[in-house]
Specification:
The complex is a heterotrimer of chains A (418), B (194) and C (339). Chain A is built from 15 helices and 16 strands. By secondary structure, chain A is an alpha/beta fold. In chain A, helix 1 packs across helix 2, helix 1 runs parallel beside helix 7 and helix 7 packs across helix 9. Chain A is globular and about 70 Å long. Chain B has a 6-stranded mixed beta sheet with strand order 2-3-1-4-5-6, with helices on one face. The N and C termini of chain B lie far apart (30 Å). Chain C is an alpha/beta fold. In chain C, strand 1, helix 3 and strand 2 form a beta-alpha-beta unit. In chain C, helix 2 runs parallel beside helix 8. Strand 9 of chain A pairs parallel with strand 2 of chain C, so a sheet runs across the interface.
Chain lengths: 418, 194, 339
């Protein structure tokens, strides 16, 4: 049913339709509306047979989910930013135990400096924890990916993280086709666990494993992700049969045929990128874009095939590996290891900095001319950072960097007004 | 695409206004995207929300820097925030005030716009009278429907009634209706204030 | 004969101990462990040290829990000795469904298991969570407090050996004052763990007003079984804090575990009591009071208090005052009317 609805609430409704049996809630901006929405549906009785548990931390949220999932319940939770760091130990544990928990990340920056706005640092901090990580481009896709996530998680017995940009998607009201219970029931079979805590057939789960077997266990975790590479498109195809729309899959290429410059990105910024691609295509520029939906597993082959004709690859990413540059870009380079194509890293949208059509266009035009540096920070205030670097060089007790930058920007604004 | 930027203060229902506008557009089978300025602002702090409307899917995700219309829920922001930044020269301005543009000190500025594109409506007073609370957001959407012609009043009314149930919905709808009538009358007379 | 009278009135002590033999009491009052149909939740062949108090306590506690739950039991385990010595891959000592997740999250994991069982229509399956004192009083404390305040249907068993023994005997917030550990060496002006630190988890558990809190000791295994059995029949969050001496960490002989544990109780340093909804309802009376010195002296972790010719009388006296305070607070000599 088509609704004009907040992304978080649409996801909450979709989660409820997936019939979760245990949902753990701990508040952190900007994912709060999702679990609040699920909680309201439990409290009102609209979602039956579900335990909604208010826990004392994100670490507890995922830990309760681990217990519930191991006991055979379909289990869901959501978090963001510092929350994922606080539960990081359990994030790895859930994957190591092979528990099919579905978790939403309302992507948000990580401090210090504390920042509640969107970027992808939180998801990147656990990219190698063994979870499948899917990134939604729109709120419709966020809804659809959650539905697919349960099926994917339970078929593989692996946890799945659905990443949706904080505020930009979570707080946006858009037209969304929220599925019916019948549609979801047709798509998502009941959870049939591969391992379950049951006195009838007692297992020990979570035993200590020494050097003699640890590598084999880890290999199987890798192999599971490789299975997901096959399963994700298959589930997307089944989804299309039931819901009659394309959602999910590994990557979404956009006007890449004949494109010489191709932008690659995760999440909602792909919408803005598509607008730029259309505008530049109208003017005859050979540009295209790829939205990566599945970041883990990483679709090396699909990217290589789609980028095969490109002369310039521009990775626009909302994350930073300090001391290296890009995280997504490093992965894309891995896909292009057989090709001599420049891969530019554009660090953009950190801590909620708007990524505008104008700035993106400038980047793609510069890339087409081969004029982009290896790593570029989009819309960086060079003056502000230069001033701070110089200042810190001159004074030993130069003070906290974040506060100095704010002070410097404030002073510049006042000077500009005068 | 038509882009609206709404300025107000935390607690004034600025985000709800954008949401309601998007729902009104949705009821007319348009695509609409409403979103807040993503702040952690508390009550009383300046806040911004946005609404885009189009006949096709809206993919753009950047904040609205060049709006086609401005709804200013609190006139005290006029001199503390650059509310007019980026406004389309043929755009629309709706201000929640019973004062004239002269009294607000922006007569010279608004004179650049077509006369029927700019309007002041005392929406807080309308809300107080109809709803009993100084929340001007719903009433202003009636005024917006009148001056912009981008959305039918019926759609605004429907969105309000969906969002607020019972008496609160009816009262907000009545406030919006009165604001719509006032703004229409202004436009017809070429007046810019009430 | 009721349980209560069995505990309070029987006088047939075995020679040299205060433990009544199973042969001498009613069949119904005999220990779970003495029964042929005990579940052997932790079966033999595990890799605990000789004289391990935790292995003994866990075995008695879980077999009692298994009997109370009629075999419908799931155990969640925090990281620690118990987890390590029972599951050296690919072997396991656990005859019951058992889940180990992390060091600090056993209470929360148990909450999840209980919630799932309820939703799966399996509410007859009971859940115990267990951890050492580090996993309980320190790193798992947040999750434990959350589990308590939500009154989740979990019995939490803390096996307290007063330190991080699994990692090589470091201080925890359950380590007593003056005890030497790897991180509180017996050096300087205040050798060992300092006074005025640490937390009393049973009292903190009581402050959550949960239905049942008890302390128990491997020196009183029948009492331990009784408390576990009682707890298993109460819904909601329950907590039993069990003293389990660690020969390695305490520097005691492996055949002295029970003796040492008994002296901890008889000195008053480790009071045995039960509390319901935040109020102490009963304390186990000390039958033969011993000075704390007798408890401390055989343990190498307290050896610095007993150097030849320069006994640390000040600190020993201070520890004695702690024991005296416990005796007064919990009425351990039965000098007042109940509890």
């Amino acid at each position: 049913m088509l609704k004009q609805i907040e992304g978080s609430i649409a996801v909450a409704e979709a989660i409820a339709l997936c019939r979760p049996e245990v949902v753990c809630a701990y508040p952190i901006t900007p994912q709060t509306h999702i679990v609040e929405g699920v909680g309201a549906l439990v409290k009102s009785g609209a979602l039956e047979n579900c335990e909604f548990i208010n826990v004392e931390s994100e670490f507890a949220a995922l830990s309760v989910a681990i217990g519930a999932s191991a006991a055979g319940a379909r289990t869901y939770t959501a978090t963001a930013s510092q929350g994922i760091l606080f539960m990081a130990e359990a994030v790895y544990n859930a994957a190591g135990l092979g528990l099919p928990i579905v978790m939403t990340i309302g992507n948000r920056a990580i401090g210090a400096p504390i920042n509640i706005w969107n970027d992808h640092t939180d998801a990147m901090s656990v990219k190698d924890a063994g979870w499948i990580q899917l990134f939604a481009e729109t709120n419709q896709e966020a809804v659809d990916l959650h539905i697919q996530a349960f099926r994917l998680a339970e078929e593989l017995s692996s946890p799945v993280m659905v990443c949706m940009d904080g505020f930009i998607l979570t707080h946006a009201y858009e037209r969304i086709d929220v599925p019916t219970q019948e549609e979801i029931d047709a798509f998502l079979p009941p959870y049939d666990p591969v391992q379950v805590l049951d006195p009838v057939e007692p297992y020990s789960i979570g035993a200590m494993v020494g050097p003699e077997a640890f590598t084999e266990v880890r290999y199987l975790a890798h192999e599971k992700q490789l299975q997901a590479l096959r399963l994700i498109p298959e589930i997307g195809a089944v989804f299309k049969d039931v819901f009659d729309r394309e959602s999910g899959g590994l990557i979404h290429p956009y006007r890449t045929e004949g494109a010489e410059t191709i932008a690659v990105a995760l999440g909602s910024v792909n919408g803005t990128i598509k607008e730029v691609v259309d505008a530049m295509r109208d003017e005859g520029a050979a540009v295209g874009s790829i939205s990566i939906c599945s970041f883990r597993p990483f679709p090396l082959d699909e990217l290589e095939a789609t980028l095969a004709g490109a002369k310039h690859v521009v990775v626009i990413e909302k994350s930073l590996a300090p001391g290296l540059g890009g995280i997504l870009a490093s992965n894309v380079r891995m896909a292009l290891r057989e090709m001599a194509v420049p891969v530019y890293t554009v660090i953009a949208g950190l801590g909620g900095r708007p990524i505008t059509m104008a700035s993106l266009r400038g980047i793609l035009e510069a890339a087409a001319k081969g004029r982009l540096p290896d790593v570029q920070f989009l819309d960086l205030d060079h003056g502000a950072v230069e001033r701070e670097i110089l200042r810190a060089r001159g004074i030993r007790r130069s003070g906290p960097t974040a506060e100095n930058i704010l002070k410097s920007l404030g002073a510049a604004a006042v000077a500009g007004d005068e | 695409m038509f882009q609206v930027r709404i300025h107000g203060r935390g607690g004034q229902g600025v985000v709800t206004a954008a949401e309601l506008l998007s729902v009104a557009a949705f009821t007319e089978d348009k695509y609409a995207q409403a979103f807040p300025s993503f702040g952690s602002e508390r009550m009383g702090a300046p806040v911004v929300s946005y609404c885009r409307m189009d006949d096709k899917e809206i993919r753009l995700r950047e904040p609205i820097s060049a709006p086609d219309a401005l709804i200013i829920q609190d006139p005290t922001l006029l001199h503390s925030v650059d509310v007019f930044k980026g406004l389309n020269p043929q755009g629309y301005i709706l201000i929640n005030s019973r004062r004239t543009f002269e009294e607000l000190g922006i007569a010279e500025y608004v004179a650049r716009f077509p006369a029927h594109h700019v309007c002041c409506v005392g929406a807080t007073e309308l809300a107080l009278r109809h709803v009993g609370r100084p929340l001007p957001n719903a009433a202003l959407l009636g005024g917006f429907a009148a001056i912009s012609g981008q959305i039918h009043f019926d759609s605004v009314e429907q969105a309000i009634l969906e969002k607020f149930s019972g008496d609160v919905g009816a009262a907000n709808a009545a406030a919006a209706r009165e604001a719509f009538d006032i703004a229409k009358a202004m436009g017809a007379k070429g007046m810019t204030a009430c | 004969m009721t349980e209560e009278t069995a505990l309070q009135r029987v006088k047939f002590y075995q020679t040299g101990t205060h433990t009544v033999g199973n042969r001498l009491i009613d069949k119904g009052a005999r220990s779970v462990q003495s029964s042929m149909d005990r579940s052997n939740a932790i079966t033999s062949g595990h890799r605990a040290c000789q004289g391990c108090g935790e292995a003994l306590g866990a075995r008695y506690a879980l077999d009692a829990a298994m009997r109370a739950a009629e075999g419908q039991l799931v155990a969640v385990n925090a990281t620690g000795c118990l987890e390590v010595f029972t599951t050296p891959y690919p072997e396991t000592s656990w005859q019951i469904p058992w889940l180990h997740s992390l060091f600090g999250n056993a209470p929360a994991v148990a909450t999840g298991v209980a919630a799932a069982m309820r939703r799966k229509g399996r509410s007859e399956v009971k859940v115990v969570a267990q951890g050492g004192d580090g996993g309980t009083t320190d790193i798992g404390f947040g999750c434990l407090s959350g589990m308590f305040e939500r009154n989740d249907d979990v019995l939490y068993l803390c096996y307290d050996n007063e330190g991080y023994m699994n990692t090589g005997v470091q201080r925890s917030s359950a380590t007593p004052p003056t005890a030497r550990t790897a991180t509180t060496p017996a050096l300087g002006d205040a050798p060992g763990n300092v006074f005025g630190t640490g937390k009393n988890l049973p009292l903190i558990a009581m402050a959550h007003n949960i239905p049942y809190v008890a302390t128990a000791s491997v020196a009183y295994l029948h009492d331990l079984e009784d408390k576990v059995t009682k707890a298993m029949h109460i819904p909601g969050a329950r907590y039993i804090h069990i003293m389990v001496p660690c020969p390695l960490g305490w520097g005691t002989a492996s055949d002295a575990t029970i003796h040492i544990a008994r002296m901890a109780v008889e000195s008053g340093l480790f009071p045995l009591f039960e509390a319901e909804h935040g109020e102490v309802t009963r304390s186990n009376k000390i039958r033969r009071r011993v000075p704390v010195k007798d408890y401390l002296a055989p343990q190498r972790r307290f050896a610095h208090l007993f150097k030849k010719g320069q006994e640390d009388t000040t600190r020993i006296a201070r520890l004695q005052r702690m024991a005296d305070a416990n005796i007064e607070r919990f009425n351990l000599l039965g000098e007042r009317e109940s509890p």
